[in-house]
Amino acid sequence: MIGTPAVRPIAEGLGAVLDELPAVVLDPAWTASPVIETWREAQRSVAPVDSLVVAVWPETVAPSSVVTLDLEEWSARLETSFALWFCALDVACDRCAEGGQVVAVTERPEAKDSAGWSLESAVADAVEVMVRSLALVHRSRRVRLHVVSTSARVGGGTGTPVADVVGAVAMLLDTDAPGINTAVIRVGSDS
Known about the structure:
Blueprint: E1 2-3, H1 8-14, E2 19-20, H2 33-43, E3 49-55, H3 71-95, E4 96-107, H4 118-137, E5 144-150, H5 162-174, E6 182-186
Parallel strand pairs: 1-2, 1-3, 3-4, 4-5, 5-6
Helix pairs in contact: 1-5, 2-3, 3-4
């Protein structure tokens, strides 16, 4: 599993080893971006595996209005997440063996609880688009890519239990259904 420390409970539930992304926060000039690229290059020598799970969650989350964010906060919260997701998904696809699969686990608030969570929603949307694009890029290698989204830490409801997220990811990893190259599952969605 590739991810941040916040997803350790998912890794433990799956019995997976968590390969942590670098702890980095981007400023508007992206001065810390070489740290991400150094990690990415180091991953090129890692042996391929049949399946990988990717989850890039910030350590803490809090709702906020987009109109109140300054450029520093925007870069730290949105651009950092997006850059780490892009890097992690790219690395996961490269590390995935032919015929294998990658599952991305995103945080997405339920529609009725989405006020103040536009950054998290934007990142979740971007991950879905990246997954669909990467599925096309890696189709010739028969690599399948999926998304599981959860509201476990975002939104006003009780959220999705980690066990449900782990169950959905495990189901996708156990599925070898031909013809299903990309699936998006919203775990616990009631909206």
